Amino acid sequence: MRLILLGPPGAGKGTQAHRLVQKHGIVQLSTGEMLRAAVAAGTPVGLKAKDIMASGALVPDEVVVGIIADRIEEPDAKKGFILDGFPRTVPQAQALDELLKKKHLKLDAVVELRVNESALLERVETRVAQMRERGEEVRIDDTPEVLSKRLASYRAQTEPLVHYYSEKRKLITIDGMMTIEQVTAAINRVLAALEADSAAKSAKKGARKTAKPATGAKKASGKAAKAPARKTKKAAKPAGKAAKGGKKPAAKAKTRAAGTKAAKTRKVAKKATKKSAKTAKRLTKRR
Ligand code: ADP
Prior knowledge:
The protein contains 12 helices and 5 strands. The protein is of the alpha/beta class. The protein has a domain at 2-177: 3-Layer(aba) Sandwich (Rossmann fold), CATH 3.40.50.300. α9 packs antiparallel against α10 (215-241), α9 (180-210) runs parallel beside α12 (270-286) and α10 packs across α11. The chain is globular. Bound molecules: adenosine-5'-diphosphate. Adenosine-5'-diphosphate (ADP) binds next to α2 and α3.
């Protein structure tokens, strides 16, 4: 499975990434952590990134794209990965598309954790206090001043990715204001529905390949493969609709595919997240 976690600083990407790593046995690739390691080791990349990171601005695209291009070549990333903190700009997303295309790899989903900005400062302050308690080194960019700069970078450069991936039908929006457990459960439900969908698609393909030319047999296998595919397709859809708060996922999907305005696609609906997750679960069960 290949996933991207999207969300502002303090949205809970790191927490959820760790949980996904454990559940799916895939690696977490955090550009923030990689850059901090480079800074600590004093590598040329680290020297370049140090002051930029301390100011809350973004490191140049070519630097992070280079890091990720190398990292996804590593053997532990073969089974899949969760990108945390990357891509952070549209050019980075385009570079990632190219990278994956070259390797014939598919991106499964982009999970956006949506949170109220007002909660972020408090969350980051709590994180800082907890790190201090544990005697860990606190990040130099975890101060209220730098946080507001990081948020500004997020809004200006990263938030457009919501639209970018929504257009590509990859976006899953989860209400990040729920508890950690609830967020994890919502992500897992949605991913389970996606997996069921792709399993149904492969089954359909397999059925097509093995189908006998005789009309009766063809119809039977076609039907058998089609039924789950239709249901699971629906099951995966509400996931993408979580942010849209719509009651009619299919209709909404069409609107979005036709190029819904970004502003329109920004509404978070906590209820919808839960509701769509429930629908996904129900439909998956039905299979
Ligand atoms: P956050 O908690 O703000 O999401 P990260 O730990 O992901 O922070 O990243 C910390 C800093 O590292 C960022 O503020 C930025 O300077 C740099 N950085 C990390 N990932 C990227 C990226 N994909 N593109 C540019 N800069 C990045």
